[in-house]
Automatic annotation (TrEMBL):
This is Glabrous enhancer-binding protein-like DBD domain-containing protein. InterPro entries: GEBP, GeBP-like_DBD. The lineage of its organism: Eukaryota, Viridiplantae, Streptophyta, Embryophyta, Tracheophyta. One of its GO terms (cellular component) is nucleus. Residues 9-20 have a biased composition (Polar residues). Residues 70-160 form the Glabrous enhancer-binding protein-like DBD domain. Signal peptide: none annotated. Residues 31-60 have a biased composition (Low complexity). Residues 1-71 are annotated as: Disordered. Pfam families: GeBP-like_DBD (PF04504). Belongs to the GeBP family. GO terms for biological process: regulation of DNA-templated transcription.
Amino acid sequence: MMNPERPSPASSDDTANTNVSDEHLSPPSSPSISSKSSSESNASTSSVLSAGSSAGSKPVVSKRPRPPVRSWTASEEIALLEAVVAYRQKHGLLPSPTALAAALDGRLRRGEGRLGAQEVAKRLRALRARYDKAALRLSRGTVPVKDDDVTIYRLSKDIWAGMRKAKMEKKNRAADAREEPREFAELAGLYPCLSAEVEAIDVVSGAAAAGMLKRAFRRIGDDTAARLEAQAKKQQVAEAKASEQLDHLRRDVARTLMKLIPHELP
């Protein structure tokens, strides 16, 4: 008795051709059939990708998108400045970015992660720079227009007005001078580092100003001389350390090269 001959399974090419024909000729399929076709399409796509990677091609690596950086709103900047003012009134000094971040945690940028000290410090620097520019514009007659800008300016003034004034006074401060000049040798004994710098500058100043700076140095006041002496001494110490490090490096290089000399001998 002969068994009935079973039909052979269709090849993948025949199946693909059949599906394409059904898609163009048949009416829209039901949702169940559509989901089945979608899963089959995903499976075929995965097989193509795996085949491509096995053939030696580099797999496609999807890059994780960076989280969006949201700029601060005016209300958030006002809340930050108010916290700085309140802390200063209570403690008599400006808070650290870490203390501010801890105090404002949960009050600002809710739902976007914790507020970090680095972000607070960066925003305070931006607000400080903005206040300096606004103060300069105000001195020229340009006033803030928006209510939020006025509030931010007033809060910034409460925080940084004194610092800006001290900075301007320091910048415009004239050197204190003595009516009676002192001998250069006396000043060299009191301020040796500063005197050495004066001599060095006088040497390279040119023939037109030769000796002029040394004569002016004789009228320098003690406050200015002490401040410049500290700066000159600090610079000379730094140069001495750098010179010592350079000498150490050169000795190390020389020792290393000496070990290589036998390889250069015939």
